[in-house]
C-alpha cells in the first residue's frame, strides 16, 4: 500500500511475480553470446514484494539508492548493494529521466525486497524484482517530473538492457518470447493452472546451463532445438491442464540434469506423487509440476519436499499479473 503521513517518508510497494517456461526452445548461440529462443512464459502468483521508500531530502547529484535490505524465506545470497538488478533498475529510470527531461531536485530512495521466489532457481526472481523496481522508480520519480509513465516501450527497453526475462516479468500473463526472450507477444489462454514448485537449496548459474547445452549438442547428446509452439499454444487455449501437461517442454532440461543429476530424483518424486507432468523450470534447478488441482499441488509440494533432502516446496497458480505497483 502507498502511504503518506505528514513529513514521514512515502512508501510504494509492488509485487514481482515469478515465471515458468511452459515451452523453452533454445536455438544456436548468437555472436553476442545469447541464444535465440522460442519460449512460452507463464507468470505465477508466487511473488516477491518490493518496497521503495522516498526518503525526501531532494538533492541533485547524489546517489539515488541509499540502501537495499533483503528479507524473507529466500533472502540467502541476494546482494544488498548496487550489484542487485533492482538497484540498477532504479538508477536506469533516474538516468533516463535526467537525460530526457533534465536534472531537477529529486529524492534519495531506499529499497526493500521480501524474497519468496527461490534465488538462482530458473524462475526469474531477480528479473521480476528489477521489473518491480522499474515501475516503482517510475511512479516515485514521475511525481517529481509531473508524469505518470515513461512509456511502456521505454520501460521494456530499459528492462531488456537489464536482463532477457525482465520484459516478460513487466508484462505478465502468458506470452510467446522470441529473440533472447525479450520480444514478446501476449497469448490467449483459458483456465488457471496449478503448480507445485520444488526449489533446491543450491542454485544453478544460467550461463553454465546454456553452455552445457551447447556442449551436449556439439557432442550429439542433446536433441535439435524445439522451436514449434503450435501444440502448447493450442493446449493453453483449450484450458485442459492434462493437455498442457503433455506438451510441457524445456530444451535446457538435459543440460540442467547433466549439471545436477540429483534433479532426476526430484522429477521422479513429483510424478510418483501424482503430478500431471514435471519439468525443470527455465535453467533450473527449480522443478515445476503441473497438477490437476490446488489440493493436488499442495500435497505434491509437501510430499516431494519431505522426500528429497535440500528442497523446499511451494504452490502457485498461473497465469498471474506482471510487476504491478499496489
Ligand atoms: O539476459 P540475462 O542476463 O538473464 O542472461 C544471463 C545469461 O544467460 C547470459 O549471459 C547468457 O549466458 C545466458 N542466456 C543465453 N541466451 C538467452 C538468455 C540468456 O545464452 N536467450
How would you describe what is shown here?
The protein contains 10 helices and 12 strands. It is an alpha+beta fold and 326 residues long. Strands 1, 2, 3, 4, 5, 6, 8 and 12 form an 8-stranded mixed β-sheet that branches. A 4-stranded antiparallel β-sheet has the order 9-10-7-11. The termini are close together. The model is unreliable at 1-5 (pLDDT under 50). Residues 33-35, 37, 163-165, 180-181, 206-207, 210 line the site of cytidine-5'-monophosphate.
Can you summarize this structure?
The chain is built from ten helices and twelve strands. It has 326 residues and is α+β, with helices and mostly antiparallel strands. The strands form two sheets. Strands 1, 2, 3, 4, 5, 6, 8 and 12 form an eight-stranded mixed β-sheet that branches. Strands 9-10-7-11 form a four-stranded antiparallel β-sheet.
Give short descriptive properties of this protein.
326 residues; 10 helices; globular; alpha+beta; 4-stranded antiparallel sheet; 8-stranded mixed sheet; GHMP_kinase_N_dom; nucleotide-binding; binds cytidine-5'-monophosphate; kinase
Distance between the termini: 6 Å
Radius of gyration: 20 Å
How many helical elements? 10
- Shape summary: globular
The main sheet comes to: 8 strands, mixed
Helix coverage percent: 25-40%
Percentage of residues in strands:
25-35%
Q: What string gives the helices and strands in order?
A: EEEHEHHHEEEHHHEHHEEHEE
Query: Can you count the beta strands?
Result: 12
Structural class: alpha+beta
- In quaternary terms, these chains amount to single chain
Bound molecules: cytidine-5'-monophosphate
Unreliable stretches covering 5 or more consecutive residues: 1-5
Mean pLDDT figure: 95
Active site: 19, 165
Catalytic activity: 4-CDP-2-C-methyl-D-erythritol + ATP = 4-CDP-2-C-methyl-D-erythritol 2-phosphate + ADP + H(+)
Family: Belongs to the GHMP kinase family. IspE subfamily.
Keywords: ATP-binding, Isoprene biosynthesis, Kinase, Nucleotide-binding, Transferase
Amino acid at each position: 500500500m502507498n502511504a503518506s503521513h505528514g513529513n514521514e517518508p512515502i512508501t510504494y510497494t509492488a509485487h514481482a511475480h515469478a515465471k515458468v517456461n511452459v515451452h523453452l526452445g533454445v536455438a544456436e548461440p548468437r555472436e553476442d553470446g545469447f541464444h535465440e529462443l522460442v519460449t512460452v512464459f507463464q507468470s505465477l502468483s508466487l511473488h516477491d514484494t518490493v518496497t521503495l521508500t522516498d526518503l525526501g531530502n531532494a538533492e541533485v547529484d547524489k546517489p539515488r539508492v541509499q540502501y537495499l535490505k533483503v528479507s524473507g524465506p529466500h533472502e540467502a545470497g541476494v546482494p544488498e548493494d548496487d550489484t542487485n538488478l533492482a538497484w540498477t533498475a532504479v538508477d536506469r529510470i533516474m538516468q533516463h529521466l535526467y537525460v530526457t527531461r533534465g536534472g531537477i531536485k529529486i529524492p534519495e530512495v531506499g529499497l526493500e525486497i521480501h524474497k519468496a521466489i527461490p534465488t538462482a532457481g530458473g524462475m526469474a526472481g531477480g528479473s521480476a524484482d528489477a521489473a518491480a523496481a522499474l515501475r516503482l522508480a517510475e511512479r516515485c520519480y514521475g511525481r517529481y517530473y509531473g508524469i505518470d509513465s515513461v512509456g511502456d516501450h521505454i520501460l521494456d527497453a530499459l528492462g531488456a538492457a537489464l536482463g532477457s526475462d525482465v520484459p516478460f516479468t513487466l508484462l505478465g500473463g502468458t506470452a510467446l518470447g522470441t529473440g533472447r526472450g525479450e520480444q514478446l507477444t501476449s497469448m490467449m489462454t483459458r483456465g488457471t493452472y496449478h503448480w507445485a514448485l520444488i526449489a533446491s537449496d543450491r542454485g544453478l548459474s544460467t550461463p553454465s546451463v546454456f553452455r552445457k547445452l551447447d556442449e551436449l549438442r556439439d557432442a550429439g547428446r542433446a536433441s535439435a532445438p524445439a522451436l514449434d509452439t503450435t501444440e502448447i499454444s493450442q493446449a493453453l487455449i483449450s484450458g485442459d491442464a492434462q493437455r498442457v501437461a503433455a506438451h510441457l517442454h524445456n530444451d535446457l532440461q538435459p543440460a540442467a540434469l547433466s549439471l545436477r543429476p540429483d534433479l532426476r530424483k526430484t522429477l521422479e518424486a513429483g510424478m510418483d506423487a501424482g503430478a500431471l507432468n514435471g519439468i525443470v523450470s527455465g535453467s533450473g534447478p527449480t522443478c515445476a509440476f503441473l497438477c490437476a488441482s490446488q489440493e493436488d499441488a499442495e500435497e505434491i509440494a509437501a510430499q516431494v519436499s519431505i522426500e528429497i533432502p535440500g528442497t523446499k516446496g511451494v504452490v502457485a497458480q498461473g497465469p498471474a499479473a506482471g510487476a504491478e505497483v499496489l
